[in-house]
Design a protein that fits this description.
alpha+beta; Uridine Diphospho-n-acetylenolpyruvylglucosamine Reductase, domain 2; Uridine Diphospho-n-acetylenolpyruvylglucosamine Reductase, domain 3; Vanillyl-alcohol Oxidase, Chain A, domain 3; 3 domains; five-stranded antiparallel β-sheet; 14 helices
Amino acid sequence: MKSLRKILPEDRFSIETEDIICYGYDASGIDVTPQAVVWPHDTTDVIKLARFAHENDYAIIPRGAGTGLTGGAVPTENSILLSFEKMNAIVDVDTENLNVMVEPGVVNGDLQKELDAKGYFYPPDPASLATCTIGGNVAENAGGPRALKYGVTRDYVMQLEAVLPDGTLFTTGVQTSKGVVGYDLTRLLVGSEGTLAIITKIRLKVLPKPESIITLLSAFPSLELAGKTVSRIIASGIIPRTLEIMDNMTLQAVNRYKNVGFPEDVEALLLIEADGNRRAIAQEAEKIFTICNEFQGKIKIAESEQSREYLWEARRVISPALYRLSPTKINEDIVVPISKVPELLSGLNKLSSRSGIPIACFGHAGDGNIHANIMTDRHNKENYQRASNLIKEIFELTLNLGGTISGEHGVGLTKARYIDMELDMTNLTLMRGIKKLFDPKNILNPGKIFPEDKKTVQR
């Protein structure tokens, strides 16, 4: 690895133990130390590294901020970790054409602040937006609470500059609002988890900020009634900006973590927002009030921007807050059709009761995306094994309801062993063929997505 000096300045890579151990893991908890870490400053550095790795048979692992939950940024043993933290420029903000050009290391929240100051916003808003990067969001096709109304990352990616594993530079997509020339390679790369090409620039569509936002909090005596409320709101023709759910276990965790004051004598809360024209959203809010009351929901309104932001801060700390209840959690981001949300929540409750393993539920209920958190302790082997056994049962429940085993976290390492529960052999063969076409030597993020390319990973 010392031969990296031949292609990069000394300050753009390291093989020192104290540096490389910091890049061996992501939020999945899996940890494998790479051979080296590289911090490219521009696309030319990426091209040089790709050629070097291709010629010397090293794997390349692209990495944003390491906030992924399925091991997508975890290195292999004979690999170079490619960290984009130095490629973090907002290259251009084009308000006339409603788009921005950014480098992959730009933090989602920093882009949000830049756009907000100009009267615009970028809708995808993962809970980790304060630290996660746009490059990582593109690799995982990240969503967030606003995905209900505005869609996910792939709906905003217009154009990508990327480097193939052999160092070939190419651009895919368009700068225009329409374009149907050839296959849509842009959408193929979005959500490909860094396995096809190394993304070096990203053009994103942005939107003007809405005129007004109303934020509501509704408490329910049962999780099932909250689920039915979600289904009824969407069926009524209302598309809220966000429609989030938190169960009682989640509420307790957040209160301990942040002392928010969420009521703990209820079984579920819905955090609902409507945005747009002030008069129109007032009418929507009235309809939401009526539906919530029909299912015994008690509503409060966020009276100020400060109280609204406080509620969202509480929502975004749920994941770390749950560790106050249990030292280990297995987070599965399952999705079902919206009308099936009540059945999913009921089914998860039954699995929890039968197994004796707590399952904390929260997430984007408005688009059917529930984060089922299996609460356990990896140091208690018997308990952890029972908890791990629930993963397949949760996936079976989800698929039987017409859902998918991952809505926004990707497959990575942790879900690869379950992928054939959802995808048949025809789909998997086509996908492997695409991988081989882009990356015939299998050096770009190997071992991710496809189960036969890796040792089985058990969390």
